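Annotators were shown the component list below and the corresponding predicted structure, then asked to write short factual statements about the assembly.
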Amino acid sequence: MTVQQFDYRDGDTLLQAGIAFPAGEEKAPAVLIVHQWAGRGEGEHKTAERLAELGYVGIAIDMFGKDVKGDPSGDNSHLIGPFLSDRAALLQRVRAAVTFAATLDRVDATRIAAIGYCFGGLCVLDLARGGADGVRGVVSLHGMLDGHGLEQDGAIAAKVLVEHGWRDPMAAPDKVLAFAEEMGARDADWQLHAHGRAMHAFTNPHAAAPEKGMAYDADADRRSWESVTAFLAELL
Amino acid sequence: MTVQQFDYRDGDTLLQAGIAFPAGEEKAPAVLIVHQWAGRGEGEHKTAERLAELGYVGIAIDMFGKDVKGDPSGDNSHLIGPFLSDRAALLQRVRAAVTFAATLDRVDATRIAAIGYCFGGLCVLDLARGGADGVRGVVSLHGMLDGHGLEQDGAIAAKVLVEHGWRDPMAAPDKVLAFAEEMGARDADWQLHAHGRAMHAFTNPHAAAPEKGMAYDADADRRSWESVTAFLAELL
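Structure shown to annotators:
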């Protein structure tokens, strides 16, 4: 299994996706993977490969730009800040990846879902909030839940699953309650799977800063992957 | 697949369990099923059969007494009230079922779990809260979450999963937060899977009183069963 690089665009911005294809030649459902704040990297590519092994076209998309790399162990606020303060731009950028995915020969454009980690979790939730044209459902893993700043209303059509570390300081209980209220008000088919002991970044084996509320959690990593794959099977 | 009836005791009280055995002769892990407030019935026996098909000894236990039947569509407060006001008696009653299960020839007494519905959800959570001797883990489905009235502390050893309807008026968001706090304070390995659109009794095909916050929900029923069986596979 190898990941191939493909260029695509959001308007004038050149972007690059890493794609893992399942065996065979026929069309397959696709799962977009949206990276955390350090940008697309090894973790997202491994996830693409795991998804390809399950029969999906795994597409690690790009929110920042083809040659823009974050610092995996540093502060990447400058990379996500512009999107957090302009959620319409965020939505346009993630939608560009859906449009790109739908053009691929191997992709069944009627069967696309999106999953995202941390910042990427916010991206896929915004995709659902924004109407989610072309996406059947989304999964946020230890993502930011905040719905403020988006000017959207009406029913949410995409199915929503949130894999959440209960001890995640970036999505404290008050954010969970606000999110639940938002989803209910928009009549979403939503689920939230809380992992009681887990903190932020629980799927990232390199996360080891419990004093900042960030740590890998093997149980939550394994259990959330089981939930995600069951959900994808339902969607696609 | 048939359910066989077995008498057992909690002190002077005669109780009766309905048991479905998996194919074969060898020992198997067991799953106790604790009924909702109307008492043990068709639903619990069906669940026992589904579990036996998965290779578990499915044991629909009895909290009320061998010949005590509730009204499936009526008010059964008089049956659960004494247990809600005496949580030590509740714990003793559900522990009697664990002890009984461990004596069965077909049961591997080192591999027992318990699941419960509504009132039964509270019973299995109390089993975990009380130390859960003999049980590896518990699942509450649309159960009551309230931990008050139990005099217990220290770490909770049994793994805990809660399948929760977010619109369940018997476990509103403030109860969810209090439960999360309780589990965290006792260092439990806990998960809560919230089903956004579901109300109380979401696994019960006969529940049809949305005006009272009770209704069957096919999505939540199917998804929660997937989560429960994945969790049992991890435990047993």
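Statements collected:
1. Helices of chain A lie at 42-53, 77-84, 87-103, 119-129, 173-185, 218-235.
2. The CA atoms of residues 137 and 234 of chain A lie 10 Å apart.
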